[in-house]
Specification:
heterodimer, A: about 90 residues, mainly alpha, 5 helices, about 65% helix, about 0% strand, B: about 180 residues, Rna Polymerase Sigma Factor, Chain: A, Arc Repressor Mutant, subunit A, 2 domains, binds zinc ion
Chain lengths: ~90, ~180
């Protein structure tokens, strides 16, 4: 992005914080926000905080959970299904 | 008959191995409701079993099952959405956790001190219309467009729900951290 591009206002950057961090902005807006945050002393710490928060949430993954009871129940349901269609 | 046996055996090797993964996803979508999750997994598995002949081997079975489970859950959720929910009028989104911690912990160090169980509990605790976008977007890594299609809501609504869901989550995690003495 040419450095002579118009600087966006703080509110414009802040309004897009999640879209920016989620990678949902188009290339032009993404670059505008990136440039603003890089040079803005007010927005930089805020974006940093939101990024750390999101990284932390996203580092939770959906863990597989085992349940014997569920497995028995599913196998029985499949047997019933076969019996019904036989 | 032998064909049926073959089908069942194939289904067991290809599909039932993903039971734990399906149950894990169901638990997060339902906010930790084990009984509801079991029903959901059973519904999804039976749908998959009935459609098994149409399923092309070689396509990703796990992803296919996850999609069936997600769709089953969302259809149920949507059919229950007759009245406007109370969360449309909440005020939590106005609270800025960042403003509260900016002096003491601007880099959000307290997030990292929280254990995974506390984060999962806070996600489980979100109202359903907020929890679903968080699970789909942040835990499953889907795009706004994908979440919009799955939930049948406009992309703009996905954005605003995610925004408010995350603000609620932040407030909740901040309260946890405070109770634990990670932040004052
Ligand atoms: Zn700024």
């Amino acid at each position: 992005m040419p450095t002579d591009a118009p600087m966006i206002a703080c509110e414009e950057a802040v309004a897009r914080v999640y879209e920016y961090l989620d990678g949902e902005l188009d290339a032009e807006w993404s670059e505008r926000v990136r440039y603003h945050v890089e040079v803005c002393r007010k927005c930089y710490p805020y974006f940093n905080f939101e990024r750390i928060f999101l990284d932390h949430v996203r580092s939770q993954h959906i863990a597989p959970e085992h349940s014997d009871r569920l497995e028995r129940r599913i196998r029985e349901a499949l047997r019933n299904e076969d019996a019904a269609s036989a | 008959m032998t064909e049926d046996r073959h089908k069942k055996a194939q289904f067991e090797t290809e599909a039932l191995v993903h039971l734990d993964a399906l149950f894990g996803l169901a638990l997060r979508l339902t906010g930790g409701d084990a009984a509801r999750s079991e029903d959901l997994v059973q519904d999804a598995i039976l749908k998959a079993y009935r459609a098994w002949d149409d399923f092309r081997l070689g396509t990703n079975c796990r992803a296919w099952l996850m999609t069936i489970l997600r769709n089953t859950f969302i259809n149920e959720f949507r059919s229950q959405q007759r009245r406007p929910s109370a969360v449309e009028f909440d005020e939590v989104a106005d609270r800025s956790v960042f403003a509260e911690v900016a002096e003491e912990d601007p880099a959000g160090g307290f997030f990292e001190r929280l254990i995974d169980d506390e984060v999962i509990a806070a996600i489980d605790d979100l109202p359903e219309e907020f929890r679903i976008p968080v699970v789909l977007s942040d835990l499953e890594g889907l795009s706004y467009q994908e979440v919009s299609e799955i939930m049948g809501i406009p992309v703009g609504t996905v954005k605003s729900r995610l925004f408010r869901a995350r603000k609620r989550l932040q407030a909740k995690l901040h309260s946890f951290a405070r109770e634990m003495g990670y932040v004052s």
